[in-house]
Specification:
Length: 102
């Protein structure tokens, strides 16, 4: 699980003996903030959701809707990010961190 975002990670759906089991979605959110008065607060949230509690497009969507969901997922969660996007994200985060420290 990524420590810097709340991106869900889905298990492979197999138990320790290799049999099928219900998929589980896990989320981890971690936030650390330093205030102007020097107080540091740290919050962590762990969320585990069983298969009965998440949206399953295969069970409730038509072919057109599933294709649209797949296209959106590939757009919003690319395998790799272009260098220009990474540079913009770094500049944005640097700018935000500078504002908080002032």
């Amino acid at each position: 699980m990524c420590c810097c975002c709340d991106s869900p990670q889905q298990s492979d759906g197999r138990d320790s003996q290799g049999g099928r089991r219900a998929p589980v979605i896990e989320r981890h959110i971690s936030i650390t903030r330093a205030g102007a008065d020097g107080v540091v607060s740290h919050t962590e949230v762990h969320i585990t959701t069983g298969s009965a509690e998440y949206f399953d497009p295969m069970a409730c969507c038509g072919a057109h809707e599933r294709a649209m969901i797949a296209a959106l997922r590939s757009y919003l969660r690319p395998e790799t990010a272009p260098a220009c996007l990474m540079a913009r994200l770094k500049a944005t985060l640097d700018h935000c961190c500078e504002e908080e420290s002032e």
